[in-house]
Amino acid sequence: MSLMQQSLVASLAEIVGPDRVKTDSESLQVFGKDWTKAHEPRPVAVVLPGSTEEVQALVRFANEQKIALVPSGGRTGLSGAAVAANGEVVVAFDRMNKILDFNPVDRQVVCQPGVITEQLQQYAEDKGLYYPVDFASSGSSQLGGNVGTNAGGIKVIRYGLTRDWVMGMKVVTGTGELLDLNQGLVKNATGYDLRHLFIGSEGTLGFIVELTMGLATQPQDPTVLVLALEEMEASMHVLQAFQAKIEVSAFEFFSEKALRHVIAEKGLARPFETEGNFYTLIEFENTSEATMDAAMSVFEHCMEQGWVLDGTMSQNVTQAKALWRLREDISETISRFTPYKNDISVQVSKVPAFLKEVDAIVTSQYPDFEIIWFGHIGDGNVHLNILKPDSLAKEEFFRQCGEVSYDIFDAVKSYGGSVSAEHGVGLLKKPYLHYSRSEAEIALMRGIKSLFDPNNIMNPGKIFD
After folding, report:
1. How far is CA 76 from CA 83, 262, 324, 385, in A?
2. Which residues of 294-311 are buried (b: 16+ CB within 10 A; e: fewer)?
3. What pLDDT digit, counting tens, does each position of 251-281 carry?
4. How large is the average pLDDT for residues 248-253?
5. Where would I find the FAD-binding PCMH-type domain in this sequence (predicted)?
6. Mean pLDDT in the chain?
7. Is residue 1 scored above 80 in pLDDT?
8. What is the pLDDT of residue 326?
9. HSE, side-chain direction, 13 A CA sphere, residue 87
10. For residue 93, which of 63, 58, 124 has the smallest C-alpha distance?
11. Rounded Cα distance, 5 and 13, in Å
12. Where do the H-state alpha helices sit in 140-283?
């Protein structure tokens, strides 16, 4: 360690304590990355603050010394937003992991940013309530990261995004100033709502140090249907038919190729003997006999119309969880193939045509690559995963996929879509931001960044340079 590094570590230790500064190679690797594998982590140090005051002191010190800071939550991100690849100091929020307060009248919980998503879900359940934002990484993702990327997940069609559940927040800006935004109010028409600037900002404007999250009523008897489809276009007819008769909580899809990987890797059973090219997973609350009758009637109608080849319905909670695994275990299952991920969205009605066009682009240019499709078709968000062949080096694989991404994002732009539906921009999507945002929008975002972070110390190089 150089004398300059020793001096830096000593200064950081004065702020958070010597045992809260990590410089060993294992810690630098663990805390300096997220789930992406395209960039090697190279932070100079990791600090674990335990309070808002320590975060403020770190930011003020970084301003004085012109040191770049990278926030680190559960490190489950998929865009490289939490990667420290250029000698930055990682600010990890693992110690700030407490639930501070609960108000049963307002149905709001005050949390520190390091609270695990599943921890909040369980806390809400213990209080007879429900935190509805859910996704595959809920067991390790942290609320600060969820808010920083405006995480979506599997229940957006009914409950919305993380944004819809943030009732207030405290943030430390790039100058070290503490802002207390919205303070849990349902109605607050007093000018610009700065809270929404920080949601989805990926730590580039400031660090979230406290969150006030809203809770919902617990769902009653969530019931799951898995249906096999021959054509993706049929999914729109199925969605429309079910939404006309019952309130749908989730409407997911996955391909036969994805299903085969999950079954082989996880030892799960097929939902039924019939094979379709695609599958939809539908969840609804079985609140009454009339609801169940309506669901069965719609299912039979879809079969009669030829939209659905076969299907199955859960009869209890255990079966519902087993059917969800067919969809939720896909990301973990294919991770061993070092997939190149595209998290893209268009209007719901355009998904089938868009998916067919993009699939044709990828398969024509790289016929030897296996393509895995799945996603949240009910809100227009699809995940394109290209699996790396064993014989191809990681660097060459990412290079080739990066080239085809320009054609994919040309299609995204022509459909008026987004190059990042829920994973954020970070490092991986930064070169493609202009496909979804105009020059004027990007210029305004740069201006906002410079206002909150004039010395460019807050997660620099993420979203844009």
Report:
1. 11, 20, 20, 17
2. bbeebbebbeeeebbbbb
3. 999 999 999 999 999 999 999 999 999 999 9
4. 96
5. 39-218
6. 95
7. no
8. 97
9. 5
10. 58
11. 12
12. 143-148, 156-159, 195-198, 234-245, 256-266
d(CA 247, CA 288): 13
pLDDT of residue 2: 77
Neighbours of 312 (CB within 10 A): 16
Cβ-based neighbours of 458, under 8 Å, separated by 6 or more: 59, 69, 174, 203, 204, 205, 206, 207, 452
Q: Give the model's pLDDT for residue 28.
A: 96
Please, is 406 exposed, middle or buried when counting C-beta atoms within 10 Å of its C-beta (0-12, 13-18, 19+)?
exposed
Amino acid, single-letter form, for residue 455: N
With contact defined as beta carbons under 8 Å apart, do 46 and 21 qualify?
A: yes
Paired with 99 in beta bridges are 111
Alpha-carbon dihedral sign for residues 12, 13, 15, 17: positive
- Portion of the chain with pLDDT greater than 70, in percent: 100
Alpha carbon 87 to chain centroid distance? 26
Question: Tell me, what's the pLDDT at 100?
Answer: 98
Span 7-28, mean pLDDT?
A: 96
Question: CB–CB of 359/373 below 8 Å?
Answer: yes
What percent helix, strand, coil does the chain show, rounded to 5?
Answer: 40, 20, 40
Nearest CA-CA partner of 277 in 261, 250, 257? 257
Closest CA relative to residue 153, chosen from 134, 166, 140: 134
**Which pLDDT does position 36 carry in this prediction?**
87
Nearest alpha carbon to residue 279 among 304, 300, 307: 307
Exposure class string for 414-437: b at 16+ Cβ within 10 A, else e: ebebbbbbbbbbbbbbbebbebbb
Q: pLDDT at position 4, please?
A: 80
The three-class DSSP label of residue 65 is helix
Instruction: Spell out the domains of the chain, with CATH numbers in brackets.
Output: 3-92 (3.30.43.10), 99-217 (3.30.465.10), 222-331 (3.30.70.2190), 338-440 (3.30.70.2740)
Strand pairing category for 69-72 and 99-103: unpaired
pLDDT at 245 over 90: yes
